[in-house]
Each structure stands twice: as C-alpha cells, then as structure tokens.
Amino acid sequence: MRTSTAYSFFNGVHTMQQQQAKLAATQEQVASGKKINRPSDDPSGAYQVSVLNQGIKQLDQFKDNANSALFQLQQVETEISSNIDILQRTRQLAVAMSTDTMSPDNRRQAAAEVDQLLNGLLNHMNATNLDGQFLFAGDNTDDRPFVEDPTNPGFVTYLTDPARPDNDPRAAFGHRSVQINFDDNLPVQPEPSQNPSRVRIAEVGSEVFGAGLASTSFASTDAEGVDHNIYNVVKIMRDRLEAGERPGDDILDDLKNAIDQQAATLTSVGTRVNRIDAQLEVNEIYKIAMTERRSGFEDLDLAEGITKLNLTQTALQVSQQTFARVQQLSLFNFINTR
After folding, report:
1. I need a surface site. Which of 12, 18, 174, 290 has the fewest CB within 10 A?
2. Strand partners, 198
3. pTM of this prediction?
4. At 199, is the secondary structure helix, strand, or coil?
5. What is residue 98's three-state secondary structure?
6. To 10 degrees, what angle do helices 302-328 and 5-32 make?
7. DSSP 109-125
C-alpha cells in the first residue's frame, strides 16, 4: 500500500498531538491528585462525584443544624432546671408556712423571699437564647411569651390569651424543628413524631409552665379568670402570706404538679438531646462512607499516576522519534549518485 508524503506527515503530527494531550492530562492528574478534573475526563464518574458531594454537603448542614439544636435544647434544660430549683424552694416555704407554729408575722417575712423567687421565676419563663429568641414562645420566638395580664394587673398571661392585645396563635404550637437526617424529600408532617428526620426545638410555655395546674383556687378572693400558670400560683401564695394566711393545700398541690410537669419536660428535652447525639454519630459514619466512595471515583493512586506519566512520556518520545525518521525517508536517498 502506497502512502503519500503529506499523509505520513499529517499522521505523524496527529499522533504526536494525541500523545502530548495525554501527557498534559496525566501531568494535571498527578499535580492535582485527582483522576477527574473536569466532567469530560469521566462523565459517569463525574456524575457520581457530584451526587456524593451534594450528599456530603447535606450531612455538613445536618451537623450544623444538630449542633444548633443541641445548644438550644441545652439552654432550655438550664432554664427549666433553674425554675425547678426555685419551685422546690418555694414549696419548702409553703410547707413550712402551713404549720401551726408559724405566726402571721413569720408568713409576712416569708412573703418577701417568695417575692424574690417570683421575679426569678418570670425571668426563666421569658428566657431567650443568644439570638434573642424566646425559648418558651412556641413557633413565635419574637414576642415575650408571659406578660402582665391586661385584665388582671399583677398576674401574667401567655401569648395566646385572646384578651392579650398581641395574641398570636403560633405560640400554641411547638412544632418548630430542624432537619438532622435525610428524609427522601418527604413532606413535613404536623406532628413531630411523624418526622423521623427532624427534631423539635420549640417549647410551648403554656404547656411547660401551666399544664396540670388546676388545684389552686382562682376565686374572686384571689383573682378571677387569670391564666393557670405557675407564676400566678406563686403570686397568690405570696399574696396569702403577705396577708398572714397559710399558703393552702391547693398551692402545695400545684407546686408539686408544676415541678413534676417541668421534670417531664426535662425528660423530653433529654430524649431529644440523646437522639441528636446518636444521629450525629450515624451521620459521621455516612460521611466517612461517602467520602471514601467519592475518593474511589475521584482520587488518583499516586504510584499508578506516576507510572502512567512515565509511559505517556515514553510514548511521546517514540512518536517524535518515529516522525523524525519518517520525514527523513526519501526516494532520493536510494539513488546511486555515482
């Protein structure tokens, strides 16, 4: 088969260009440590790397969400624990002031301490996180949950009280949550228990500080129509002590109920904290597995890359030498000039 000089020339140039392109690509891989530096290097592998990168970014976001939720719930634990300490001291005083050995003057003196405890109680009920969001305002974190009752001065009412000017029904729900795991794009359900990939971080103040408080008599002698929350119970106790009266069995019962209710809330918060800790460990395992899988698609084996680089360099040198030799071939070299 005969080939023209032009064909041999262009074929040789094309071969060298191919080898130079392969050498440049191999040099880039060795320099970057990556087998895939652009999608065209391996379209299928590049797609897998893209999917894995997205999953790893989601896991990083879940970690941020989980750490934020942990901090929020730890703040809730701190505030409720402090509140329980106040209520336990208040109940000790209530028990002591209920005995026959205490005089009206003794009870009036105890009322001064209860008044201080009352202030601390309200501070914890209206506690905020570092971002200034109220911890016990349900889904409405911008407004103070417990403020003075406009119809009963001296008492406080919760954010959802219809008589309150800034009444906000969102404070009746505690479904504010953060996502800490993949959910396969499932729609968010109204109940926290129906969202396995999310954890609730909002607390409803009326449930934490008001549930189960039905013993105290909110009669006309104390206050009629006030919100049944623990602040108002302790205020009535203070008012009775200031009048030299016994706190009453209803106060003792509601103080115990309030302590039990807040202890139950602490248990719920602790359960969520444990769940977040466990999910963080699982997510870390997921991330390690995804990172290793991505490495299999993307990362270059350095020894293999150097071997390939040497072979490519040799192939380029051979193609260059071959091109030079072929270009020297000419019929005139075989003509006897003698």
Report:
1. 18
2. 179
3. 0.74
4. strand
5. coil
6. 160
7. HHHHHHHHHHHHHHHHH
